[in-house]
Design goal:
By secondary structure, this protein is α/β, with parallel strands linked by helices. Helices cover 25% and strands 27% of the residues. Bound molecules: alpha-L-arabinofuranose.
């Protein structure tokens, strides 16, 4: 312990200037209060918010999930290690084939004998597409993974008929030229693909076939009609705005597109990628504040579009691309197939956890969300020809996808705050809660870079019962990364206990913790 020597007033002043800690009171431990009421339900958590996405881009498909001839692949060419790790992520919905790639993709190139499929210039990512992975390979992967498929059609340079015939090829039981072709290619029964996107990011000038909101709305409407007439059971996803550029009109695009499509679509697709460009931990950790606000704005636009419509007519949000992505932007030293190979650190994993909190907290309106992407390309898994490692962002996604189910609860949270540059005052603790038949899951991110926060939970209408399961995602420092031979960031089991209707837990700095306990 430090003690003060006896000093004259003048020398004491000098000592104070050099060592101000002498008079500074030790900060009181940071505390938060959180109340839980199982009747304060936000909505049903749709398992499809734990979706993922694979695109013909870099080493996501070829060299990622699909690696023909690799000793690590099964007899169908699928990487076994990637598939096993993907299964543990409990991927519920898998979006394919893009992304930007879909805007110049002719699905008929990807069917039939693999060695006879055409090689095409791929202009979204500046490469050549060999089409060895197409509709049948994707559906085979879907079956192995146990996920639901989500196709994104080409409304860039593609036609209404191409989109309609893809639905017919996949879903129809009629005897037609399309279904005969499917049978000839080895699939007798229709697959019955439910989720179909009407193009990708059509508001972006980077998109092949980019259109104005009005032109896209009119074009997508005709595609939507034909697709639903082919199979009325399908669900359609309209391309909402993903352009956050200075001249973009995010709300205007969403409003116009919904005016055209509100009687035909079931979801509005939105995307968001964030990054720590200014190396400001506090600002970066607050990125989900923007996500939260955009979800609210989009929900308002949807409500306005549907006002006057029967209550049964619903449109939900499909946040079908999201992640941290700012380092590997496909420029500079990235070469050939090794593009968008973002390496993630602990702070990225925490931001991912706050995004998942935000989706759970809007479970009444966000019914689909797809992390982009599954492997190698801005992804939770990283594979080489020799093996695989789990990136930091894998762990929060795994914990959420396997545990946060049922109904989401609105928590009362009184947390200390900090002043962020971009988002004003932001609570250090970011939270969500899921309640499923007596099982309560609490997700808590401590955004503080160097202080623990002690939280007192109080159940309002029930009591805690039995053991508390606690998992913490953390690491030695916020920039810690994983690699093939080192796992610095992962989920570690901790201990916790509850008594009666009270549970106290000390959330360490820069951590995401999941607490799971029964309520009776
Ligand atoms: O996921 C990478 C790219 O990001 C997708 O192709 C595109 O939709 C988005 O801009």
């Amino acid at each position: 312990m430090k003690t003060l020597p006896s000093l004259s007033r003048r020398s004491f002043g000098k000592v104070l200037a050099a060592a101000p800690w002498i008079l500074r009171a030790q900060p009181a431990p940071a505390r938060a209060r959180i109340k839980i009421d199982t009747e304060r339900v936000i909505g049903d958590i749709d398992p499809k918010i734990y979706g993922n996405f694979i695109e013909h881009l870099g080493r996501c498909i070829e060299g990622g999930i699909f690696d023909e001839g690799s000793p690590l692949s099964d007899s169908d060419g699928f990487r076994r290690d990637v598939l096993d790790a993907a299964k543990k992520l409990n991927v519920t919905l898998l979006r394919w084939p893009g992304g930007n790639f879909s805007s110049n993709y002719n699905w008929t190139d990807g069917i039939g004998p693999r060695d006879q499929r055409p090689r095409r210039l791929e202009m979204a990512w500046g490469t050549v597409e060999d089409n060895r992975f197409g509709t049948h390979e994707f559906m085979q992967y879907i079956e192995k993974l146990g996920a639901e498929p989500y196709f994104c059609t080409n409304l860039g340079v593609g036609s209404w008929q191409q989109a309609q015939q893809w639905v017919e090829y996949c879903n129809s039981s009629e005897d037609t030229a399309m279904t005969r072709l499917r049978k000839q290619n080895g699939r007798a029964q229709p697959w019955k693909v439910t989720y179909w996107g009407l193009g990708n990011e059509m508001d972006g000038p980077w998109q092949m076939g980019h259109r104005s909101a009005d032109d896209y709305g009119k074009f997508a409407l005709e595609a939507a009609k034909l697709m639903k007439w082919t199979d009325p059971g399908i669900k359609l996803i309209a391309a909402g705005s993903s352009n956050f550029g200075p001249n973009a009109d995010w709300t205007g695009w969403n409003r116009t597109v919904l005016e055209h499509l509100k009687h035909h679509v079931d979801y509005l697709s939105l995307h968001m990628y964030v990054g720590n460009r200014g190396n400001d931990f506090g600002d970066f950790m607050a990125s989900s504040v923007e996500l939260d606000s955009r979800i609210k704005t989009a929900a308002g636009i949807i409500d306005a579009a549907l006002s006057g419509e029967p209550a049964s007519r619903r449109i939900y949000i499909a946040w079908d691309e999201w992640n941290v992505w700012y380092r590997a932007r496909g420029e500079g030293k990235e070469q050939g197939r090794r593009i968008l190979e973002e390496r993630y650190n602990l702070e990225d994993a925490l931001v991912v956890a706050t995004f998942l909190n935000t989706f759970v907290n809007h479970s009444h309106v966000v019914k689909i969300a797809n992390m982009a992407q599954l492997v190698n390309v801005i992804a939770p898994m990283f594979a080489s020809e020799k093996g695989l490692f789990l990136q930091t962002i894998y762990y929060p996604l795994q914990l959420f996808a396997n545990n946060s189910k049922g109904k989401s609860l609105e928590l009362f949270v009184d947390s200390p705050k900090y002043a962020s540059k971009r988002f004003g005052d932001v609570p250090y603790l970011d939270t969500s809660a899921a309640y499923d038949n007596g099982a309560l899951v609490l997700n808590v991110v401590n955004r503080h870079p160097d202080r623990a926060i002690e939280a007192d939970f109080e159940a309002q209408d029930k009591k805690f019962s039995g053991a508390v399961e606690a998992w913490e995602v953390n690491g030695p420092d916020i920039k810690a990364e994983n690699d093939f031979d080192s796992t610095k960031v992962r989920a570690v089991q901790r201990s916790a206990a509850a008594q009666g209707n009270r549970l106290a837990y000390n959330f360490p700095p820069h951590s995401y913790t999941m607490l799971k306990v029964r309520l009776v």
